[in-house]
Amino acid sequence: MSTPSRCPHWPCQDSSGPDWLERERDGCGVGFLARLDGQPSHWLLQQALRGLACMEHRGGCGGDRDSGDGAGVLCAIPWLLLETLWPAVAALPDGNIPALGMVFLPRDAEARSTTRRLCEEQAAQLGLHSHGWRVVPVDRDVLGPMAAASCPVIEQWLLSIDERHGDQEALERLLFRCRRRIGAQLGDVLGTAVSRHVSFASLSTRTVVYKGMVRSEVLPVFYRDLQDERFAVPYAVYHRRFSTNTLPRWPLAQPMRLLGHNGEINTLLGNINWALAAQDGLKQVWEDAASDLHPVVNPAFSDSANLDGMLELMVRSGRPVIESLMTLVPEAFQQQPELEGRQQLQDFYAYWAGIQEAWDGPALLAFTDGRWIGACLDRNGLRPARYCVTRDGLVVMGTETGVVELDEAAIVEKGRLGPGQMLAVDLEKGRLLRNWEVKEEAASRYPYGQWLQLRQQLAPQAWCGEPRFTDLELLQLQTAVGFTAEALDLIIEDMAGKRKEPTVCMGDD
To answer: Is 28 a catalytic residue?
Structure first.
């Protein structure tokens, strides 16, 4: 039986489809809440979980119709709560900067013990102090069959560093190295099969991630910490996953360590190849420690996990998270009318376009590194991102509106992100920055215009009369950079002879 046409009722709808298709709202749900005054509260966490529950229709479930593709929250570490629950936190020495890891461990007790020992050994080699582990209280009875069958043992790991040996940013860099070194050795220590059950949901001095292969409403029931009224935070990112190009797994639930992603990265294969090709450049920043960070991406991970990994690498290498995202997910900046008169911003994009390829595709990214929190939309703008600001300094952004309990009379601003736009909150200074404000601040940090001119100027040189390479050497170099015989015959020779790009056809249809 065909579906009745709806054209008489909806003149703007030129096609009709099955009711189930028209009601479809899959595609991940993501959002964040943040207070400009930095005041932590359990209410904010509750509202983040409420927003997460309202995103359930945007997520996916397994074949058992009960195991979610993934749901989670990324928020500030609730140190006051942990001090009351975990004696090791209260006993931290004065002058030590603490850090917390949320770790998924194997179910096998021996493998779990081996993993903890490896973690502590690697931490000690980097000068970090390990203060023990805490089993995170969970309720496994609420999990679906598929999620329960693969559920890891979840523990928190407490570390610190003496502030005389480094500041908070130095500790973040050491934690990043420590996690990568642990990951590189897990396969040799545990074996490939068992090592797949070990992952770090988070390891930071500022943020922690509670996530799992669950439905939205199950997350706060599964993690008992989230029910404690002493769990107070000033900001939170939430995410409900609809798995598209990977099967659901506990480590692939979101948010990741820095971001929650709604969308797909269509250029993923090229991004991975270029990242692997350029990873030797890490030596300029990390020196001898660069080898700890190889490989910088992993083809076995999801597009979101690889994007998060690249973002984390850039942030831990010293670049602000705002600048890093503007580089990885740039707006369409060439011949854009709104960028006229914003030369610094044009120079910023032009400079980085020649160094970092864009991670392109429909994407809404909600992010935080504990210093900034915000959201950005890709250059195509194909994902919804709506926000509002209240009179008392609460900023709410989400895939959908109405998911947070707010008094309409208290809202002083409403808006939505357009293609390539960004909204950010400076958590340290309590500032809300709109699109042009946050971008122009990032673009003004360095003289990108001067750098761009230096890169574009080539010193005149005399023509070389003799070949510099043999035919075989030339062929090897051309192959290494992706040149093909077709490119040379149809494009390069024509450009050299006519000073313009040729027009070619890909087929003879």
So the answer is: yes
- pLDDT, residue 365, reads 96
**Gap between the Cα atoms of 427 and 433, Å rounded:** 11
Residues 474-488 have a mean pLDDT of 84
> Phi, psi at residue 220, to the nearest 5°?
-70, -15
As given in the structure block, the two tokens for residue 121 are 């050994």
Q: In this structure, what token pair is assigned to residue 262?
A: 């709604």
Q: Of 328, 402, 320, 384, which Cα lies nearest the Cα of 360?
A: 328
Selected from 3.40.50.960, 3.90.1170.20, 3.40.50.300, 3.60.20.10, the CATH number assigned to the domain covering 30-453 reads 3.60.20.10
Question: Residue 435 has which token pair?
Answer: 């699109």
158-210 pLDDT, tens digit per residue, is: 999 988 888 999 999 999 999 999 999 999 999 999 999 999 999 999 999 99
**pLDDT tens per residue across span 94-105:** 889 999 999 999
**Residue pair 396/374 in contact by the 8 Å Cβ criterion:** no
Strand 363-368, strand 259-263: pairing: antiparallel
If you write DSSP's letter for every residue of 195-258 in order, what string do you get? HTT-EEEEEESSEEEEEESS-GGGHHHHBGGGG-TT--BSEEEEEE---SSS---GGG-SS-SS
Question: Beta-strand (E) ranges in 370-435?
Answer: 372-377, 386-390, 394-398, 411-416, 422-426, 431-433
Give per-residue pLDDT as tens, 202-218. Answer: 999 999 999 999 999 99
Q: Which amino acid is at 95?
A: G
**Which residues, at least 6 apart from 30, have a Cβ–Cβ distance to it below 8 Å?**
55, 237, 238, 239, 240, 254, 255, 260, 261, 262, 364, 365, 366, 398, 399
Provide CATH 3.60.20.10 ranges for the chain. 30-453
- Predicted pLDDT of residue 15: 37
Q: Which of helix, strand or coil describes residue 302?
A: coil
Q: Which two tokens mark 29?
A: 């749900």
Which is it for strands 129-135 and 153-162: parallel, antiparallel or unpaired?
antiparallel
Whether the Cβ atoms of residue 197 and residue 108 lie closer than 8 Å to each other: no
Cα 317 to Cα 307: distance, rounded to the nearest angstrom? 15
Label residue 486 exposed, middle or buried (CB < 10 Å: 0-12, 13-18, 19+). Answer: exposed
Count other C-beta atoms under 10 Å from residue 357's C-beta: 17
Q: Which residues are CB-contacts of 323 (< 8 A; sequence separation ≥ 6)?
A: 442, 445
Catalytic residue of the set 7, 12, 28, 61? 28
Instruction: Take residue 78 and report the two structure tokens written for it.
Output: 């609730």
Q: Is the pLDDT score of 5 beyond 50? A: no
Q: What is the pLDDT of residue 502?
A: 84
